Amino acid sequence: MTNRPPDDPQSSQTTALGFDDFIGILVAFSAIGGILFWSLSRQDPGNFNWIMPRVKPSPVSPSPAPTLEPTPDVNLDTRRSLPDTDVTAPIDTPDSGDGVISPPVFPPANIAPPINSTPRQKLLPFPIGFESSIKSSPQPLVSPAKKKSIIPPPIAFNDVPTDFWASRFIDVLSSRGMIKGFPDYSFRPNQPVNRAEFAAILQQTFDKEGTNSTLSFTDVPTTSWATPAINQALSTGFLKGYPNKTFKPEQKIPRVQVLVALVSGLNLKEPVAPDQVLSIYKDAKDIPQYATGKIAAATANGLVINYPDSETLAPNKETTRAEVAAMVYQALVKTRRVEKITSPYLVQSSQ
């Protein structure tokens, strides 16, 4: 039996790690690190802020809203007016200087309004407060203007041409409703006028107030269409009846009676020398004696119109509708209700 030599006491202290030992230690630490990383990543997946320094956010002042200035031509299609902006582009913020990194700030995304399918319309710009200024501003008081009388157009009679000698007189009277035509749109200017028709024209033309007294005629029934007009013509002094209590409404009225009626109704004064005034007429001798003063007054006041010869009165001739219109118009000129009309058939008296 042999004796074993004793171990060297310094051999365990001087022996170095082998390659296998180093590999084992590296694997052990890798496993420990993997387990630690796995456990931390399960708490907030994708969040690696724990390995980054804590960031202190800096306050960001809100950017002022852009001011839209009104333009005279604004289209509803806003795609052309909005600038192209990168939605995802961050806005750089200055470094605070204390080592704290500010996070990137993203501007609000500009969303284009929907495009309407309706046709484009121009928007009229109004300043702010325009509506309130309208409501609050007091309106000035305006006194109503005096209304002017509107005269309707004359009746276009189919038998009164524009070059007819009495067309201007007829037009004015028809536009004022003082004379009327017939259902067939005719005026019949050369048709004679009877006493009842002349009374109706006087009623429509003159608004003179008369007396309340009425006379009854044996030849004018109370149911006649002309009774109101005849009563008014009598009460206003334009017409008179005959001594036997008759009016003779169907009698064609002569020119002398028309002029006497107008002078009587207007209360015109007779000239001092009527014969001198009547000397202008070639047929002055045909004037009835009872009417000389009235015809002289009619001549001196411009009521007489003689067609076709201004110097021929024809006092006893039946008066046509055109002649009645012309003489009634001259009576309105005398009362200043209408303007004068120049006519070559108007008798001009020097008295």
From TrEMBL:
Pro residues compositional bias, start-end: 59-69
Transmembrane segments: 22-40
Region of interest: Disordered: 58-98
Record keyword Transmembrane present: yes
Domain annotation SLH: ranges: 153-216, 217-276, 278-342
PROSITE patterns: SLH
Source organism, top-level taxon: Bacteria
Keyword line: Membrane, Transmembrane, Transmembrane helix
Cited Pfam families: SLH
Protein name: S-layer homology domain-containing protein
